[in-house]
Amino acid sequence: MAMIFESPDGGETVYVREYGETTRVLYSESNKKKSLHSQLMESKLWGDIHRAAEHIPALQDALERVKVIYYLTDDYEERYGNRRKT
User: Fold this and answer.
1) Per-residue pLDDT tens for 9-49?
2) How many CB atoms lie within 10 A of CB 75?
3) What is the mean pLDDT of residues 71-76?
4) The pTM is what?
5) What is the DSSP secondary-structure string of 26-64?
6) How far apart are CA 28 and CA 25, in angstroms?
7) What are the pLDDT digits (tens) for 42-54?
């Protein structure tokens, strides 16, 4: 049977299905698409962590330590400047 390859997004993802069938399977993803997926999953994970921290004190403490470390980085200063009032 003939295989049909389809890409709904100009080649970023490619699906394959048998001719006459409607069910398709992911065949390949570009690095760009994989990167976006990874970023979305990482963002979801951080959201899950923040929600869980509302009920888990040790997780709340760990997140507070992460925030302090971030506030001390050059990246924070470049993005937001020095917010301390003198």
Assistant:
1) 988 889 999 999 999 998 998 888 888 888 899 999 999 99
2) 9
3) 84
4) 0.53
5) EEEE-HHHHHHHHHHHHHHHHHHHHHHHTT-HHHHHHHH
6) 9
7) 999 999 999 999 9
| Nearby residues of 25 by Cβ (< 8 Å), 6 or more positions away | 15, 16, 17
For the sheet with 3-6, list strands across it. Answer: 3-6, 13-18, 25-29
* Token reading at 54: 């509302």
81 sits in the region (left: phi over 0; alpha: psi -120 to 50; else beta) called left
Q: Rg (Cα) of the chain, in Å, rounded?
A: 22
How far is residue 6's CA from residue 25's CA, in Å, rounded to a whole number? Answer: 10
> How many C-beta atoms surround the C-beta of residue 15 within 10 A?
15
CA atoms within 13 A on the CB side of 18: 2
How far is the C-alpha of 83 from the C-alpha of 33, rounded, in Å? 37
